[in-house]
Design goal:
The chain has about 160 residues and is mainly α. The chain contains nine helices and no strands.
């Protein structure tokens, strides 16, 4: 096995451990392990998940910076585009979120575009554009008919419109 392959493999083990810590709410441990993983072999996934850990601590500036690093490593990976959009929505900056979410939806390597559609709907809601929000919730449901957050958001929005 080549040295680079070994480094990649060891970095993945660290990232997997970091993710388990993150899911257990042990964010400090997760952040430390993601950083070690990235130092060993930077991947778009590790940067994105490190950003997610920061966001769970309301450290959105750092979260966005990690997602930008993820995009620099792999511009085809959709998750960091969606995450930047979601963080900007949390910061009440929906206008800035829209282009990021649109990039996520069109990203070649993105397994869950319904998340970006849902977030785009949330951005349009913040911008008081309920009909465009409904379109995005419907698009999320067209991709993933059982995606409950889109059902809930759509139902709540329709209830306010009636």
């Amino acid at each position: 096995m080549e040295e680079q392959d070994l480094m990649r493999e060891q970095a993945q083990v660290l990232a997997d451990r970091a993710y388990r810590h993150q899911m257990n709410g042990e964010l400090g441990d997760a952040i430390a392990l993601y950083r070690r993983s990235i130092a060993m072999f930077p991947t778009a996934e590790a940067h994105t998940f490190l950003g997610w850990a920061y966001s769970m601590m309301d450290r959105y500036t750092e979260a966005i910076a990690e997602c930008e690093k993820a995009i620099a490593v792999d511009p085809l990976f959709g998750n960091p585009y969606n995450d930047i959009g979601a963080y900007l929505i949390e910061l009440s900056r929906p206008e800035e979120a829209i282009p990021w979410l649109q990039k996520a939806i069109g990203a070649p390597r993105y397994e869950t575009p319904q998340y970006a559609c849902m977030n785009l709907g949330r951005a349009y809601q913040q911008l008081s554009d309920p009909y465009r929000a409904l379109e995005m919730f419907d698009q999320a449901l067209a991709i993933a008919p059982l995606y409950l957050p889109a059902h809930w958001a759509r139902t709540a929005l329709l209830g306010r419109l009636n």
